Automatic annotation (TrEMBL), chain A:
<feature type="domain" description="Glycosyltransferase 2-like">
    <location>
        <begin position="4"/>
        <end position="118"/>
    </location>
</feature>
<protein>
    <recommendedName>
        <fullName>Glycosyltransferase 2-like domain-containing protein</fullName>
    </recommendedName>
</protein>
<dbReference type="Pfam" id="PF00535">
    <property type="entry name" value="Glycos_transf_2"/>
</dbReference>
<dbReference type="GO" id="GO:0006487">
    <property type="term" value="P:protein N-linked glycosylation"/>
</dbReference>
<dbReference type="InterPro" id="IPR001173">
    <property type="entry name" value="Glyco_trans_2-like"/>
</dbReference>
<dbReference type="InterPro" id="IPR029044">
    <property type="entry name" value="Nucleotide-diphossugar_trans"/>
</dbReference>
From TrEMBL, chain B:
<protein>
    <recommendedName>
        <fullName>DUF2304 domain-containing protein</fullName>
    </recommendedName>
</protein>
<feature type="transmembrane region" description="Helical">
    <location>
        <begin position="65"/>
        <end position="82"/>
    </location>
</feature>
<dbReference type="InterPro" id="IPR019277">
    <property type="entry name" value="DUF2304"/>
</dbReference>
<keyword id="KW-1133">Transmembrane helix</keyword>
<feature type="transmembrane region" description="Helical">
    <location>
        <begin position="6"/>
        <end position="24"/>
    </location>
</feature>
<feature type="transmembrane region" description="Helical">
    <location>
        <begin position="31"/>
        <end position="53"/>
    </location>
</feature>
<dbReference type="Pfam" id="PF10066">
    <property type="entry name" value="DUF2304"/>
</dbReference>
<keyword id="KW-0812">Transmembrane</keyword>
<keyword id="KW-0472">Membrane</keyword>
Length: 221, 121
């Protein structure tokens, strides 16, 4: 399978080494996009057998993923997977997701934290995600179980339909909306996301501001 | 002439002189300078002859002259903010596009170069 894993990274020098050490074991080409980090993220990534693209300035995770995806497609990869650099995502899910995509029955595969046997995450996060799920269903008409899934795999052909414009974290929801409004065939697979003090501190996002922006976009787009 | 009128006239004169200096240094265009001068000339005229604004307020149906000034000022500020927002959005979009294109091209060229030297990616 001609697949590539895209890893967006912003100031992840402490964690990206561990993540890439696990990822390279899978022997799948990896594109790391250093999103204008002020630390040694790009240098740490460069020690591994990966392709490193660098943003001159910090644009946001959505923009970094777009850069990585477009680079992967330019390099001829037909399947693209998005994977976080902070160590939250489970490497074990990559093969099943790519295998599911290889069957040609689906165009996009999402990993969902809500399909596993047990929902392991901090309570505040659980509350926010459940609220976001209801918000997404009511205002955005998206029926995915995980409203902020950042772990996804898709075919290069599907990219044109799901191409996101948001440079920041809103790309997660925008991709779900684009998929829901397109003819793309999608499926969710269960995953467990690891939350530790590092990733929790990194993931602090302006949730209310994001929700407001998404609502405005949904209403006036 | 009241103290208020004197302050308004001196401040307006100061703004116009500053705009003139910028225009001479070619930091702003002649058109912007003329627009700026016209604006402050209008402020000076209204400060000297406040009856003008009261008559105008009566004409458009607003109670007091000062109310008309506030309504017009809010309208102008909202319009300027709207235009600025559009401009900032466009600059952000262009910047993001430029940064992304550069990142993709540099990485692609590096990979192509390494492939030429048979390094596996």
């Amino acid at each position: 399978m001609n697949a590539c894993v895209v890893v967006p990274a912003y100031n992840e020098e402490k964690r990206i080494g561990e993540v890439l050490a696990e990822l390279v074991k899978l022997e799948i080409p990896i594109v790391v996009v250093d999103d204008g980090s002020s630390d040694e993220t790009a240098q740490v990534a460069g020690r591994f057998n990966v392709i490193v693209a660098r943003h001159m300035v910090n644009l946001g995770q959505g923009a970094a993923l777009r850069t990585g995806t477009e680079l992967a497609m330019k390099l001829g990869f037909e399947t693209i997977m998005h994977f976080d650099a902070d160590g939250q995502h489970d490497v074990e899910i990559i093969r099943p997701m790519l295998d599911a995509l290889a069957k040609n029955e689906h165009d996009v595969i999402f990993a969902s934290r809500f399909l596993g046997e047990k929902l392991v995450m901090p309570t505040y996060k659980k509350v926010i995600l459940i609220a976001a799920k209801i918000f997404g269903r009511v205002f955005l008409q998206i029926k995915f179980t995980d409203p902020q899934s950042g772990l996804r795999a898709f075919t290069a052909a599907a990219y044109h339909s799901l191409r996101w414009r948001a440079n920041d974290f809103r790309h997660c929801t925008e991709i779900l909306i684009n998929v829901a409004r397109s003819d793309l065939r999608w499926r969710e697979l269960p995953t467990i996301v690891r939350y530790d003090s590092y990733s929790t501190a990194k993931a602090k996002r302006p949730q209310m501001r994001m929700a407001w922006k998404m609502l405005m976009e949904a209403l006036f787009r | 002439m009241s103290l208020f009128q004197t302050i308004i006239i001196l401040a307006s004169l100061g703004f116009v002189i500053r705009a003139l200096v910028r225009c001479v240094k070619k930091q702003i265009s002649l058109w912007l300078f003329l627009l700026w001068t016209t604006l402050w000339a209008g402020v000076v005229i209204v400060a000297i002859y406040p009856v003008i604004i009261n008559r105008l307020a009566d004409f458009v149906g607003v109670g007091r002259g000062v109310d008309l000034i506030i309504y017009v000022a809010i309208g102008v500020i909202v319009y300027i903010l709207f235009k600025q927002q559009i401009r900032v959005g466009k600059v952000e979009k262009d910047l993001a596009q430029m940064v992304q294109t550069k990142a993709v091209d540099e990485a692609f060229n590096l990979v192509a170069k390494e492939k030429g030297s048979d390094k596996e990616i």
